[in-house]
């Protein structure tokens, strides 16, 4: 009975969560753990796409000597228009000497380039070095005439959308389009760009080195169709690129500045190759690709031979905006006593900046940035320095975390758990899952992980409760999670309202079902012991079946509609959530209280029936069973905190079913059935004595509990009653 009721209850909670209009699009993918939402202590969240929208906006182009922001993009545009109009006037003027003039330019490398040519080079590099494909929607109405359709749709700007695996790349290509250099088509072998003047430039793709999370960079080798020049373009994270580009004094500093503004940075570089250099590279590269042992290492080594002394072109800064209502949601979760850990693959500065702007770390709090450590001694010193600080947020990188966990796992987790917020940056997916398991192991508290991409799946599956967000990165996370939501702000309502209700209701329902079973067992025990422990069943077949189903099922199950606090209150006072994590709604104490209630009531009902009905003892079954059903219905009424119209219907429906069955199932209400000749006479039920005696027994079994409940609410009211009154 307990199993069935709880499973049906959980299904009902899931249905309520999915039908909640305030959190549209929420999907419950598991029907076993909605109560866990009500007892979370640690929330581990990803950054990109979870706290932020994963919609990038191009904010900054830095060329070392000069920096362009959103308000000065028109300057870049004019530079691009000028430089391309010059090139084309040269080309059209003397088509024969166009290549020699280029050759002369490139043979004088030491002349400091003008700003205009540097912008030209940088924008061209950003427009070529990527994995983006422009897609044209075919227009409706020309489906029959496909040849015309292709001509018709070819380069119309309104019809073009870009597709790529990462939103950063799309943003960069959209930006080059906005300043005049447009990516119009791309296939396996070539890329075509359109200049501001409408000319099409074609570049043949010779090699492409895709982005990986290990290398943190991508490269492409292209050949210009008009001049035949071969160029190797590369872009990537500053950590990877700082060793590859030629010596310069500004890259590191500017990257830090942009990261402190919360921008995601990419470094763009190029290297011109002669035909001989490229042929040499290609032969070595193909040979490496054919090797049987250590192929990946050999290929990487050949590519690295090119990645030397590259010319630094520019640094780009892209902003990832916070999702709607992230700040109030994090504020609410913090007030609810939930500790929030942000695990991200981003740079330390970017992560810290987002942590501040999203109010994950409140403005007044100190932030302790854990220095990078590599040895046991350093970790020891750094942990001691951290131990001296009180109530400050911790920011630590993945590598330092590994070292600390290797030598001082217990001490580190103990200190980190006291922090109001923890930010781990440069985390790998396996590290994220490892941190979740550590928290579960060391604290024994419930953890919840929330993320949006494939890199968060391991963390989501490791946590007690996984929540996935359907974002730009596909549905891997939301399919692997227990709950799938569409926006981060929905998590507030999911935990505060649905988590609270599911936990409270399951606790009440579970204990009530136990009480329902215990009370009838107590009555059987009393009955047998009075009759010299004779093995006579008190209630015959159908009554036993009917008791747990038709007579009491609806009222007991209607406890899943009960709520102690209105949803608005639960969201307004998230502090109420703290009480739930102590697990006081369902503990040994509450269970034993219910056992005592069951034994008391079972004893009263049976002894009452035996005492009051000495003369008509034959009717003991009818009397005790009637009193039992009434007691159960009254107990449900006593347990309910907020009435719902369906509860009232359920109470009266069950009572009606019982009264009807008294008339039809009369042979079941005798002892030992026909052997005693005790059929139920309807005349006896309708007498006043029967009614008052049954009422008396019921009152004695229930009234003391009502009085106790009233006194308890008077002298130690629960925290929420102060708000609801």
From TrEMBL:
Catalytic activity: ATP + H2O + phospholipidSide 1 = ADP + phosphate + phospholipidSide 2
Binding of Mg(2+), residues: 46, 48, 452, 456
Subcellular location: Golgi apparatus, trans-Golgi network membrane; Membrane
Keyword Electron transport part of the UniProt annotation: no
GO biological process, one term: retrograde vesicle-mediated transport, Golgi to endoplasmic reticulum
The EC number(s) this enzyme carries: 7.6.2.1
Region (Disordered): 85-113
UniProt-listed PROSITE patterns: ATPASE_E1_E2
Compositional bias (Polar residues): 85-108
Enzymatic class: translocase
Chief localisation class: Golgi
PANTHER family attached to this UniProt entry: PHOSPHOLIPID-TRANSPORTING ATPASE IIB-RELATED, PROBABLE PHOSPHOLIPID-TRANSPORTING ATPASE
Name of the featured protein: Phospholipid-transporting ATPase
Protein's organism: Gavia stellata
